[in-house]
Write a structure and sequence with these properties.
Four copies of one chain form a homotetramer.
Chain A: E1 4-9, H1 25-40, H2 45-50, E2 53-64, E3 73-83, E4 87-96, E5 102-114, H3 125-133
Antiparallel strand pairs in A: 1-3, 2-5, 3-4, 4-5
Amino acid sequence: MKGFVWPVRVYYEDTDSGGVVYHANYLRYMERARTEWLRSLGFEQDALQRAGVVFAVRSVMLDYLRPGHFNQLLAVSVSVARRGRASLTFAQEVYLHESEELLCTAHVKIACLETTTFRPRRIPDEILAEFARDR
Amino acid sequence: MKGFVWPVRVYYEDTDSGGVVYHANYLRYMERARTEWLRSLGFEQDALQRAGVVFAVRSVMLDYLRPGHFNQLLAVSVSVARRGRASLTFAQEVYLHESEELLCTAHVKIACLETTTFRPRRIPDEILAEFARDR
Amino acid sequence: MKGFVWPVRVYYEDTDSGGVVYHANYLRYMERARTEWLRSLGFEQDALQRAGVVFAVRSVMLDYLRPGHFNQLLAVSVSVARRGRASLTFAQEVYLHESEELLCTAHVKIACLETTTFRPRRIPDEILAEFARDR
Amino acid sequence: MKGFVWPVRVYYEDTDSGGVVYHANYLRYMERARTEWLRSLGFEQDALQRAGVVFAVRSVMLDYLRPGHFNQLLAVSVSVARRGRASLTFAQEVYLHESEELLCTAHVKIACLETTTFRPRRIPDEILAEFARDR
C-alpha cells in the first residue's frame, strides 16, 4: 500500500525547544528514505555519482499535520508519483510507526543531473527499468 | 521591494558533499529571517511563548532554482502574503546578497497556537496591528 | 570487545562540502548510540524524563583520525569508562562497519539531572544495577 | 582580553526538546567564529581551498558549564592557543552576550591539509604572518 517504508527514530538532535521534531528535519528523514529505497533497488548513490549521475531536489510541497516527539519511532514511505525523463516526483509520508498516525505528507520533485556540470540529464535506463518494476 | 531582508552566511555546517547548501537548510534560513522580522517589529518569541503564543509551520512550498555554495553571503526576504485570524502565509526568497541571483523561493504557512495545548488560537491583536503597519 | 555497537549510515545531511562527515555530527552519532544502548538495557529516555531523570553532556574529548564519507555504513560503540553517583563517562568509537577502520574516538561525560530543576541528582539505583550487569 | 568575538543568535533549529541548545551545536558555533576570524584577517576559505589549503578539525575538548536557551544572543570567542607548522590550537568560549556568563569552553585543534590529497601541509606563510600580528 505504502510502497517502500523506512524506519526513523527521533533523537534529541531532531527536536527543538518547542518539544517537537523541528520542521526542516522531515526533509532529512525523507531523503534518508529515498536513499534507502534506491539502495533497495540496487543503486548506491556514491557509485551513481562516479558514473556521472546525481540527484537534486527541485521542489517540495510539505504539509505538517501533527508534531512528532522525542524518542518516537517513525516510518517514512516512498512512492514514485510521476516519472519524467530527467526528473521524478515522489509522494512521501511520515507517520508514527506503531499507530500509523500521519505526521507529515510531501511531494518532492527530484532532478537528475550530471555530476560535474550540474546540468539536467536523462535518468539512466537501468534505473528507469528498475523504477518501472517497483510497484 | 523585498520587505524585510536578513543576511545569512553559508558555513561548512550548511553544505553537503554535493558541494552545495543542503536543501533542508533553506527552511532553517527562512525561519531565522522570520524570527528576526518578528524581532524587528518588537516581538521576542520567548516572551510570546510565556504569554501563551507559539507559531508552528503548517505547510511549505519550496522551489530550488540554483544551488548556494560554501562561504557565500545570502539574503533571505520575508513578506506576508496572506493574513488570517489564526495563521499567516509568508512569501520568502533566498538570493545571493551581492548579485541578487535567486536561489530559492517559498511560501510558508504558519499557524498561531496556544503554548500549552498546541491548539490554534487567534493571533494577538497587538501583533496583527504591527503586521498591518509592516508594508 | 567493543561493548554495545549501533550502526549509522552517512546521508547527505551528514556531510559537508569538504566531501566528508561534518565534524560536529559525530557527537550526534554518539548520542544516538548511547540512546540505543540505554534502550537495550530497558530504559526509554522519555519515560525517564517523566520520572524526573534527564541526562546532559558535561564534557567531551574527541579525536578525529580519518574522515567518514557519504553513503558509508559506520558503527558507533558505547562502553562505560567510569561510573560515578551522578555521572557516567563513556568511551565511544566510530569506525567503518566493514573494515573496522577507526574514524573517531571520544570520551563523553554525562551528568544525571533532575528534569525540572536541572540540578545534579543520583543516578537511579535500577539504572546503576543494569549498568553493573552491562559488561 | 577575549580576542576575536563573533555573535550567534540561538534559533529553534539550535535547540532540543530538553529546552536548551543541543550540545553538538556549540561546535558549529565555534566553527562559524573561526571562519569569521579568518575572514577578519583577510582570508576567505573558499579562496584558500582553490589555493590548495583546507583546514580540518583534529581534536576537540569541550566543557559544558551552563545551558544556552532559545532566542539568547551568544558570543563566541576565538584565540590561538598554540601555533604549529601544520596545525593550530584554538581556545574558544561561548558565553551570553549580555551578562558574559560562560556557557561552554573548548580547545579545538585544526590541521592544515592539501585540498586534494587531504595530507598535512605547512600553513602558508602569509597566513602565519597574519596570525603573528593577531594578538
